[in-house]
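Supplementary Data S3. Sequence and structure tokens for construct A.
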Amino acid sequence: MNAGTVMELGRQALEVLLLVSAPMLLAALATGLVVSIFQAATQINEMTLSFIPKLVAMFVTLLLAGPWMLTLLTDYMRRLIESIPALIG
């Protein structure tokens, strides 16, 4: 196993990491933006107001995108485990 192989495995791992985390992060970002606009419009400056909507949005996102995320992780792990003989020998 040479440096190029290690770099390729690291690149693939980071790619899977970004793909799996993107739906949850985007849901939290969008919800935070909507709540911030609502707080600015109504002048309600309660810090805990944004927590519950973000939590609900992330839960709904996990329910909707969870199977896709699990499939993506499972496929990556299967490819990684299947490539072990080629990496060793």
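Construct B, processed identically:
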Amino acid sequence: MSEIQNTLSAAALNKQPEQASLGKDNLLSLFESATGPCAFVFSLWGLAYLFDGEILPHYVVLSILVFALTFPGQVRLQSPVFSEALDIAVNWFWIAGLLLIGAFASGYINEISQPVFYTWLLVAPLAKLGACLALRRAAPMLLKLQGPKKRALIVGMNEQGLALANKISASPFSTVELVGFVDSRSTERLDTTSPHMLLAKLDQLADQIKTQNIQLIYLSLPMASQPRILQILDDLKDTTASIYFVPDMFVTDLIQGQSSSVCGTPVISVCETPFKATNGVVKRLADIVFSILILIMIFPVLLVIAAAVKLGSPGPIVFKQRRYGLDGEEILVYKFRSMTVTEDGGAIKQAQKNDKRITPLGSFLRRSSLDELPQFVNVLQGRMSIVGPRPHAVAHNELYRKLIKGYMVRHKVKPGITGWAQVNGYRGETDTLDKMQGRIDFDLDYLRNWSLQLDAHIILKTIRLVLKDQKAY
């Protein structure tokens, strides 16, 4: 278990804890959203003018396409430079791959100057990195253009209030200046180690707003305190401060928690898929492109394995088993048959070490993961993804969903050929409840912190593990 405990979390890999949101009203956020896409477009136009002496219509079409694929850019002003450069490289790898496939498939590659196009594929990520570094240098000036910071009070010195205060303090580009807290509880019930100042009791809130020149108020009170909240709101009607409610649900274990609205009513997601809107399109396009490329490359290998399975033992070449896919819907998953049986009933025994049901060829196929290769067809069909939680047999799902809290949440996304759990020590048999719990913990960690960078990390680590891992049998 020590190997598992020393693994890197998805949030740490994505550097998410250090990223404090700038807010939609922050001028820097607007510039950061446009900096990357504009860098891609202007670098293309610059190279077109340099090589061709003018910006022809097909360059305009390409620039519109790449801007649509990359806007809005993500806020990364507080990331280490190396981390930002790595993230730019990984994201551009996917985008450039899609552009190349599209250019060849549509014949567009013959319409555009190839020296310009290939040079731009190399220059574009460097242009974005340079633009982001320039934005970092210009950030203090942009902050000054927004005027002085808005002074804020937090009502409620509780867990979510302190978390909000720490995020405000940790963000050098925030437009909010936290003055302190207001709370009526005794000091024995408060976190006295907090560096943030407790200014007054709740009944002195209105006076504090006037004397401290407060412009923003964040109500961080339990939802059960409705009468007290209503009283506070009534007391604040005589002020001009903007008031925001910080719901106490965000200290729970949210899956892709974010705010949205339903018919104009604001709501906060507690459990949602990361593959909505643009993310879903990018994920699906990447799966289609790479599954086609991989199937073309491994086609001779598929033929050889198919012949070996057929000649090695009686039974079908491809084993089809029912698994749970997206939203818990049943799907058929393909594998090269590696056993003398093809179980798919209400009770299925997991493969174990020295399992007599495994054929000699099947042992090699399972150890090397070559038995999973037909699942790239599942990816192309849209039933699976290259990276995602590994699908379990229906019988195992029905067993563990009753034993492990949050088990079915992993089905908010398509199952994958490889996953975050598999590259962190949970590949192969899960013969104890603790091992399955560990696998589910990593699956949920993947859902919370998905990024293209994380997918690329999982794929590269999978390749390394397949060459040396002996846990699959």
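The chain has a mean pLDDT of 81. The longest strand covers residues 176-182.
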